Amino acid sequence: MTDLNPVEKAEAAVRAAETDTAAVQLAMAAMELAKLATQQQAQQPSPQQVCQHDHRKAGRSTGEWIGIACAVCVGGVGIAFASLALAFLGAVGAIVVLVLRDMWREAQRKGR
Fold first, then answer.
1. CA-CA distance, 95 to 101, in Å (whole number)?
2. Which end of the chain, C or N, has fewer beta carbons within 10 A?
3. CB neighbours of residue 5 within 10 Å
């Protein structure tokens, strides 16, 4: 027999110590402990199977919500200023067109 595992070693010790009751009881206890140890090692997950990363909830944190709210406010103000600028540009364009039209009509009347 070469390279015996702990369970086989304990069983061999029990067979060798059959005459001595205390030695048999001690060997049986060692054999049971070895069996329990091998069973526990088989049941425990390997270190590679253990999940090591942090599980976070799917929701957003308070800081993220504050950042989103600030971005929406800044975007709303930007859209408001852009709308005002377009309205101002439209009014100025209308005034320029009316003035140019009036100047054209006067030039046409004087030319006749």
1. 10
2. C
3. 9
Q: Which residue has the tokens 């015996």?
A: 4
* Whole-angstrom distance, CA of residue 4 vs CA of residue 15: 15
The DSSP code sequence of 67-103 is HHHHHHHHHHHHHHHHHHHHHHHHHHHHHHHHHHHHH
Domain boundaries, the chain: 1-45, 80-112
CB 7 within 8 A of CB 34: yes
Note if the pTM is more than 0.70. no
